[in-house]
Write a structure and sequence with these properties.
The complex is a heterodimer of chains A (about 575) and B (about 325). With about 575 residues, chain A is α/β, with parallel strands linked by helices. Chain A contains 20 helices and 20 strands. Helices cover about 35% and strands about 25% of the residues of chain A. In chain A, about 45% of the residues are buried. Chain B has a two-stranded antiparallel ribbon with strand order 1-2. In chain B, a hairpin with a 2-residue loop joins strand 1 and strand 2.
């Protein structure tokens, strides 16, 4: 065993609050050896990121290190002065953040940002710094570095930006990189590439990597050692194989059990049971008070026929000079009554555009949409209003899809008021009922969205979507911003809704294991085209198209997981 | 980029044609110019002759097109009151207003941005809080009151600075400048502060809130994680991002400085366009009013056009990427 390059010993971080000291990180201890990738896994709020921030000396005020030590190559670094810590940041320790879209300054070229960092740490001439920057871009496999050097971040795709971020972290040949959820915002295929790059770099440059993530698949694929955190404490430390196949701690066991398996289809998503946070979701209440959903005339609730959407790519005065980008290209499918239809594909494949056209948020450029036999594309504005009442959407980001200036009560009541579904004096009672049913307390109605966690906000979105008693629900990546345990709760709510209320659903996701559990049939989209539609089981067992096979192969294999 | 500018230029022209119509309509609706030009003892023949001579017997649209044609050449006719070409009067008065506005704008922008950045970086500091609360005075006190207070303090009580006029001016070609004499410079100080104070506090507050917003962004955090010093982060990375939205407001405020000069010029008896306009209103000197209105709208439109172009210059995301 080589000497650890970074050691964290009994680290405790505290935040003074009005109710006394809050300790988000308690007595955390782990080591990173050169060339080793250590996964730190746990739910949001478990203190994973806080530990990483403490290591690079970037704790946000008023959080501070209360006790414990951090050693970097035999030198204690937690008690250094501000300037010395700054020299270590970006010098000895590099950092990679979650969202590559926001971690680069949009107003500077990536070359400027690279050269700036290189010159700061290595004290070389501008020319040398540029050469180094080009070499780094090449190192992280960015094609044509010379051209890319002078481009701005918005000219890069998400995966390419994350490569730039990695290049920035590598500027001064660090001995440790702290990667905080580096692939959470990326597509499955891009995620695999970025993780491969990190693995390769760790092997070749002997840099130690702390990989903070909530994704068990990433842990299984990438790391050698893993640290499981719960509630600010390390509950388990050990080699990845051992922790995943034979977890010792109860929390680890239930966390692993909650990961959706791609291999089998279960009736319900297993929830993280540890810590007694079971939801109080009363499903039988839901069916009461719900107007009986009428079956559609033809048995097919939604029929989509050759819909096409083109976006203007380059505007010009003359129509013939304009160029268009075809986001959705003649997509045809139908959804039966009470069916959950999945739509999978990489970002940019047109999944969300399809959902938006069905939700009449975007106009259709060609083709037809029929809902219960009525042609949506030919409806009058009054008919569209009636149609919109019957379809509701749940969006991906629970943070931006709720108006931060509105109380939860007004948010949930808005569809009722807008469609004038209830007399004014009954609205408040109905809102309470809806909140109750998605497992939120009555007190929630008087609060604002920022007082809730991501999972709770997504429940508010569901309550809002249910307010009009819709027949059809469009879920656009409803859980991709959520933790595994929260994801299980939300997905179970959706499953229950579908079963007890006979709701029909369009379920969009890039997470294949989740799709396997949720959906009856699945459509695969690639570059705007629907290339394959199959029964879920058939698709997973026997994919027809090469592209589908590739997608399935990229799915994180959790073969070594227990249970 | 070019289609974007062309579109903006086209919109600007549309705005100018509409304000031109408003300026033109003043001639028709605010009293009869014939009444204004001929005295009490006029005959019907005089009226008819002048009407034909001025082209007022022609249909309104024809008159409007002629008005626009003349206006484009800078010809707004003869002042009712002074009996001189309006363009000549404006040329004579413009330097005073433009020098005053330029100095106020520099004061507002430089001091506003500096204080805004300072209060954002030291946001809980005592000095920053003091600046923030005293800036409320700048926002809430009306311009004329600030002007009078400044005159009382610095001219009446202390006797340091003149209370009215431009002081001595030097003529450079047709332009008359107060920048080259001591009395001219002294005379500029109080009016510029009075005129720029409101804009200064506005810019400061805007820069502060934008900067606080930018400092919360991920790329600032990432810049810190790269080990950049606070100075580089604040003044290179954060400031540039802060300026993107601030520039629009500064552009609009520049126009406002010239338009608001009316009050300051009245308080300080500053011989500029604002004072000219006030006097024109008092005497219903419509050609001068119309010319002033046109001039201000041209200025607003041009400033906005420049701001839009500058915007694209600062923010690469607005430039059309060469593929």
């Amino acid at each position: 065993m080589t000497e650890p390059v970074l050691s964290i010993r009994d680290l405790t971080v505290e935040i003074p609050t009005r109710h006394g000291l809050f300790k988000p990180v308690q007595n955390v201890t782990y080591d990173i050896r050169p060339g080793e990738i250590r996964g730190v896994v746990g739910e949001s709020g478990a203190g994973k990121s806080m530990t990483g921030n403490a290591v690079i000396g970037l704790l946000d005020d008023p959080a501070r290190i209360a006790s414990g030590e951090i050693w970097l190559k035999g030198r204690r670094i937690d008690n250094l002065g501000v300037e010395e810590q700054r020299a270590i940041r970006g010098g000895e320790i590099g950092m990679i953040f979650q969202d590559p879209l926001t971690s680069l300054n949009p107003l500077f070229t990536i070359g400027e940002q690279l050269v700036e960092t290189i010159q700061l740490h290595l004290k070389v001439s501008g020319k040398e710094a540029k050469e180094r920057a080009l070499a780094l871009l090449d190192r992280v496999s960015i094609p044509d570095p010379k051209t890319r050097f002078d481009q701005y971040p918005h000219q890069f795709s998400g995966g390419m930006r994350q490569r730039v971020v990695i290049a920035l972290a590598l500027c001064s040949e660090p001995s440790v990189i702290v990667a905080d959820e580096p692939t959470t915002a990326l597509d499955v295929s891009i995620q695999a590439q970025v993780l491969d790059l990190i693995k390769e770099l760790a092997r070749e440059t002997q840099v130690g990597v702390i990989l903070v993530t909530h994704d068990m698949g990433v842990i299984a694929d990438t790391t050698e050692q893993v640290t499981v955190m719960y509630n600010g404490q390390v509950v388990e430390n050990g080699s990845t194989d051992q922790v995943l196949s034979a977890p010792k701690h109860e929390y680890t066991k239930s966390l692993i059990a909650a990961v959706p398996r791609p291999q089998v289809k279960l009736h319900r998503f297993p929830q993280v049971s540890y810590g007694g946070r079971e939801t109080t979701f009363k499903i039988e209440d839901l069916a009461r008070n719900w107007a009986k959903t009428e079956p559609s005339k033809s048995g097919k609730l939604l029929e989509v026929e050759g819909i096409t959407k083109k976006f203007l790519e380059k505007s010009a005065i003359l129509p013939s000079w304009r160029t268009y980008f075809t986001a959705v290209d003649e997509v045809t499918f139908d959804i039966k009554d009470g069916e959950v239809f999945g739509l999978v594909g990489e970002s940019g494949s047109g999944k969300s555009t399809v959902a938006r056209m069905i939700g009449t948020l975007l106009d259709v450029d060609g083709g037809r949409i029929r809902f219960d036999g009525e042609e949506v594309t030919a409806m009058t504005p009054a008919q569209i209003a009636g149609y919109r009442r019957q379809i509701q959407m749940i969006f991906q980001d629970p943070f931006s899809s709720l108006n931060p200036r509105m109380k939860v009560e007004s948010i949930v009541a808005e569809p009722l008021r807008h469609h004038k579904l209830l007399p004014v004096d009954q609205i408040s009672g109905r809102v309470q009922e809806l909140l109750d049913r998605v497992g939120l307390t009555r007190a929630a109605a008087a609060k604002y969205p920022h007082e809730f966690s991501g999972g709770q906000r997504q429940r508010i979105s569901i309550a809002r979507a249910l307010a009009t008693q819709p027949r059809f629900l469009i879920c656009d990546e409803p859980t991709s911003a959520l933790d595994v345990s929260i994801q299980a709760q939300i997905l179970n709510i959706l499953k229950d809704l579908q079963e007890h209320l006979g709701l029909t659903m369009l379920f969009i996701s890039h997470d294949l294991p989740v799709v396997r559990q949720m959906c009856d049939r699945v459509g695969v989209m690639k570059q705007g085209q629907l290339i394959e539609v199959q029964e879920t089981e058939t698709l997973f067992a026997d994919p027809r198209q090469d592209y589908t096979k590739k997608l399935l192969e990229l799915m994180p294999r959790l073969a070594q997981l227990s249970g | 980029m070019l289609p974007f500018i062309l579109k903006r230029v086209f919109q600007s022209l549309l705005v100018l044609i509409i304000t031109g119509a408003i300026a033109f309509s003043m001639f028709t609706f605010v009293g009869d110019p014939i009444d204004n030009m001929l005295g009490q003892e006029r005959t019907m023949e005089d009226v008819e002759r002048l009407r034909a001579q001025l082209g007022l017997d022609q249909p309104i649209p024809v008159q409007y097109v002629k008005f626009l044609g003349e206006a484009v050449q800078g010809n707004f006719g003869v002042s009712y009151r002074q009996g001189r070409e309006v363009s000549e009067i404006i040329k004579e008065r413009a330097p005073a207003t433009l020098e005053l506005a330029a100095l106020s704008a520099v004061f507002a922008i430089v001091v506003g941005i500096a204080l805004g950045v300072f209060t954002a970086i030291r946001r809980d500091g005592f000095v920053a809080n003091f600046i923030m609360s005293s800036s409320l005075i700048g926002v809430s006190l009306p311009t004329f009151l600030i002007g009078i207070l400044l005159i009382y303090l610095f001219s009446v009580e202390l006797g340091w600075l003149p209370s009215f006029g431009r002081g001595e001016v030097v003529r450079v070609g047709w332009w008359s400048t107060g920048f080259l004499t001591e009395t001219g410079l002294k005379a500029l100080i109080l009016p510029s502060i009075t005129l720029g104070l409101y804009q200064m506090t506005l810019i400061m507050r805007l820069v502060r809130s934008e900067m606080l917003e930018v400092l919360r962004q991920d790329y600032i955090r990432f810049a810190r994680a790269r080990g950049l010093s606070e100075r580089v982060i604040n003044f290179r990375h954060a400031l540039k991002n802060t300026m993107v939205p601030v520039i629009t407001v500064i552009g609009l405020q520049l126009g406002a400085i010239i338009a608001f000069a009316i009050i300051t010029e009245t308080v300080f008896q500053w011989p500029g366009l604002g004072l000219l306009f006030i006097n024109a209103i008092q005497f219903v000197d419509i050609p001068v009013m119309a010319a002033y209105l046109m001039m201000i709208s041209v200025m607003f439109v041009v400033i906005n056009l420049l701001v839009d172009i500058l915007y694209a210059f600062i923010d690469p995301r607005l430039r059309v990427s060469a593929k």
